[in-house]
Amino acid sequence: MPIPAKPARKSLRSAPESNAEPAATSIAGILRRLRRESGLTLQELGERCGIATSTLSKIENGQMSPTYDTILRVARGFNIDVAELFTGAQSSHVGGRRTVTRRGQGVLRGTAQYSYEMLASELSGKQFIPLLTTIEARSLADFPSLVSHPGEEFFYVLSGTVTLHSEHYAPTVLEAGDSCYFDSTMGHACISSGETPAQILWICSQVVAPLIE
Question: Do 134 and 114 form a contact (C-beta atoms < 8 A)?
């Protein structure tokens, strides 16, 4: 007697990945929720932020990690504090403020170029944004272009070797203990040029003007 054929196994990829809702705590999930709550289409949000609709769609679907200046643009488009895009929660804004971030307990976010740990994320309206950052980028080819936005930045190298590329200066190599302060409107990008990813304490001034294209 012939042995009945086994029923075909269902593919684990039966549902398209693009239909999956992003995790609510990811930047993709936070962006999608904020956009829906604001009643904005992707095109309308893109016009507010100066970001292509296709780019926003890829971020919302978890197909692209936003760069830091893209995060700034989106925050400006929603008229919210950058911390809200990192945490997904409205931050407190009261007098006599103080907050402590214990080691390893900041809000973690990553892009193709950098991994961020946002410090003091509970507070909104800060005059500057402190980030413990691991530089993953190994060459300028890892960036679509040099980043440019209003404000000023300072970083202190904690470990590894950093090469700062900027619009008006030759590439500058910084080792552990070195630091740099620069104008954010100047195109810039940091890469890790040592054997291991570099770690820096990165301080960015709060953005108060429309971001540059």
Answer: yes
